Amino acid sequence: MAIGSKELAPSELDGMDSERLVAELKKAKQELFNLRFSSATGQLEDHGRLKTVRRDIARIYTILRERELGIRTEPTADAK
């Protein structure tokens, strides 16, 4: 099984529209900032979460870029 959040699996991300992906990206970046801050102050207990969030961010960027290049299509309104 790939490392990452279960709610941000590639199949789940593929079903989201671009606006929702950007919102998820912003949320993940905020979480990464908070995790880094906790790590720097010595309060972080789950160090594996840093890797998980970084991979989630990479997955979102990949899907957005593939849509930009036309490799992957954005879901239609019927699929929702």
UniProtKB/TrEMBL annotation:
InterPro entries, sorted: Ribosomal_protein_uL29 (IPR050063), Ribosomal_uL29 (IPR001854), Ribosomal_uL29_sf (IPR036049)
Ribosomal protein keyword on record: yes
SUPFAM superfamilies, per the entry: Ribosomal protein L29 (L29p)
GO biological process per UniProt: translation
Keyword terms: Ribonucleoprotein, Ribosomal protein
Pfam families (UniProt xref): Ribosomal_L29
GO MF annotation terms: structural constituent of ribosome
One annotated Gene Ontology cellular component of this protein: cytosolic large ribosomal subunit
Source organism, top-level taxon: Bacteria
Keyword Ribonucleoprotein: yes
Similarity section: Belongs to the universal ribosomal protein uL29 family.
The name this protein goes by in its record: Large ribosomal subunit protein uL29
Lineage: Bacteria, Bacillati, Actinomycetota, Actinomycetes, Micrococcales
Gene: rpmC
